[in-house]
């Protein structure tokens, strides 16, 4: 009796360990569409009758309705979504349901379902990325003249405009869009009909099922197809890169909303008060966005590790390919959506940004450039003279942009007769607008970049 109980317990434990139906049920819609396409092809090729096909299609649509209504009961003993659907189908229509699996394997079936899912998520994520880019461009359009300290090493470097800073993120997310787009095109191929690993002797038409499912063409090698998860790795990499960009803007939002910066104030919808200190408003949403980046990195590394030692063809290890993708997709979708809302609703403190530009002598490079171009000095000489002017400004407890002509001239004998136009060159807004090179921060160039984005966004 004890042996029987132990045997039953072990069998149940193995069923739970082996089964994937409780998470791959996410693919029910793709699985049913793939089965309808496969059945249609089997009918057209004369492999099953029109009557069988009609019963199969109607039965599958009933299964779909049951799943979507919550009536369908998923059972561990079904093992995966494919067997769950097929078992219920056979219960509904009988013998015809048993003909559906002709000329296919669960190996190509799961690859087809998963490819369909990833392909469709590539499209939806691309759409969300484009919305976020548009949000950055809209904000940039309002702040092409708003000064903010441009930084390197998190130290004040040169004056730029806030719109230009926002366009830097727009460019990052545009590259993300292009990565998803490239992956979509590369992986727009159908796995259905590859069977277990070597194709099938049945007279199937893989081009037919590919067309029915909206793929550009079928894959060319069955052996590679059933074991390939590059498409899943690509979407995980693309998501990880996009989340890295989300984390970077989140970090700046957190810094900028701090008391030390006070560059912006986040909407109360996306920040919370402290549970013990009522005066505090915490940037919870950007912090969560920053934290969730580590989560998607983990999913990418997990699948890389699963795949690294697998021989051809299919191995059960690849059952571990889906949960991480599902999780990363859900994470990027909500992250893109909520970040866009945070950016739209935040209040920009223009005065604080511009006042911050008066700290750190941001126009120092402009003096050096002036000495090189107007006074024909070697850059290294100009560099050391500029250091003297910075020293003078510090002694006077002023920013370099606030020095008058006499103060500038008295800082170094080599510039004691410098033209009075130097005062204009050291003006912070003039410094920003002097950078008119292609891709530069001047208001004019920023507007050029905005126009280019608007063309791309159409």
Quick take:
By secondary structure, the chain is mainly alpha-helical. Helix content is 63%, strand content 5%.
What characteristics describe this protein?
458 residues, two-stranded parallel ribbon, 5% strand
- Which strands sit side by side, in order, in the main sheet? 1-2
Strand content: 5-15%
Can you give the helix content as a percent range?
55-70%
Question: What distance lies between the first and last C-alpha atoms, to the nearest angstrom?
Answer: 72 Å
- Sum up the overall morphology in one term: elongated
User: Uncertain runs with pLDDT below 50, 5 residues or more?
Assistant: none
String of helices and strands: HHHHHHEEHEHEHHEEEHHEHHHHHHH
Derived structural class: mainly alpha
| Residue-averaged pLDDT | 95
Radius of gyration: 31 Å
Total number of beta strands: 8
Number of helices: 19
Largest beta sheet, briefly?
A: 2 strands, antiparallel
Structural overview:
This protein has 458 residues and is mainly α. Helix content is 63%, strand content 5%. It has helices at 2-18, 21-24, 28-44, 50-69, 81-93, 106-142, 162-186, 206-212, 222-227, 230-256, 284-307, 322-345, 350-356, 364-374, 379-395, 405-409, 422-425, 428-434, 443-457; strands at 147-152, 155-161, 189-190, 217-218, 264-265, 272-273, 281-282, 347-348. The chain has a two-stranded antiparallel ribbon with strand order 1-2. Strands 3-4 form a two-stranded parallel ribbon. A hairpin with a 7-residue loop joins β6 and β7 (281-282). α6 (106-142) runs antiparallel to α7 (162-186). The radius of gyration is 31 Å and the shape is elongated. The protein starts with a helix and ends with a helix. The model has no long low-confidence stretch (mean pLDDT 95).
């Amino acid at each position: 009796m004890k042996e029987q109980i132990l045997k039953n317990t072990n069998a149940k434990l193995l069923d739970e360990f082996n089964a994937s139906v409780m998470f791959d049920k996410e693919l029910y819609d793709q699985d049913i569409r793939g089965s309808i396409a496969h059945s249609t092809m089997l009918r057209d090729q004369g492999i099953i009758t029109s009557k069988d096909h009609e019963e199969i299609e109607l039965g599958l649509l009933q299964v779909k309705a049951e799943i979507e209504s919550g009536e369908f009961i998923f059972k561990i003993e079904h093992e995966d979504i494919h067997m769950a659907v097929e078992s219920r189908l056979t219960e509904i229509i009988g013998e015809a349901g048993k003909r559906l699996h002709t000329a296919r394997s669960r190996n190509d079936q799961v690859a087809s379902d998963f490819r369909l899912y990833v392909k469709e998520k590539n499209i939806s994520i691309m759409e969300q990325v484009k919305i976020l880019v548009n949000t950055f461009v809209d904000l940039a359009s309002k702040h092409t003249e708003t000064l903010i300290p441009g930084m390197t090493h998190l130290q004040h470097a040169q004056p730029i405009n806030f719109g230009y800073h926002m366009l830097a993120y727009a460019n990052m997310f545009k590259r993300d869009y292009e990565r998803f787009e490239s992956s979509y095109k590369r992986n727009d191929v159908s796995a259905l009909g590859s069977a277990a690993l070597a194709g099938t002797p049945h007279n199937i038409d893989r081009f037919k099922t590919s067309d029915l499912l909206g793929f550009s063409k079928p894959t060319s090698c069955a052996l590679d197809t059933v074991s390939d998860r590059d498409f899943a790795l690509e979407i995980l990499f693309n998501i990880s890169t996009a989340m890295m960009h989300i984390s970077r803007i989140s970090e700046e939002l957190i810094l900028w909303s701090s008391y030390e910066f006070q560059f912006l104030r986040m909407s109360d919808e996306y920040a919370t008060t402290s549970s013990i200190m009522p005066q505090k408003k915490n940037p919870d949403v950007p912090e969560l966005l920053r934290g969730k980046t580590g989560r998607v990195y983990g999913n990418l590394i997990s699948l890389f590790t699963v795949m690294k030692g697998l021989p051809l063809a299919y191995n059960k290890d690849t059952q571990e390919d889906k949960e991480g993708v599902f999780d990363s997709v859900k994470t990027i979708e909500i992250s893109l959506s909520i970040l866009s809302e945070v950016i739209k609703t935040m209040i920009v403190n223009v005065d604080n940004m511009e006042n911050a530009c008066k700290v750190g002598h941001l126009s120092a490079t402009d003096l050096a450039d002036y000495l090189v171009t107007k006074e024909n000095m070697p850059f290294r000489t100009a560099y050391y003279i500029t250091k003297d002017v910075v020293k003078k400004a510090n002694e006077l407890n002023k920013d370099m942009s606030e020095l008058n002509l006499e103060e500038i001239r008295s800082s170094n004998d080599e510039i004691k007769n410098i033209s009075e136009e130097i005062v204009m060159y050291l003006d912070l807004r003039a410094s920003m607008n002097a950078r008119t090179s292609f891709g530069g921060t001047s208001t004019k160039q920023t507007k050029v970049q905005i126009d280019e984005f608007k063309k791309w966004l159409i």
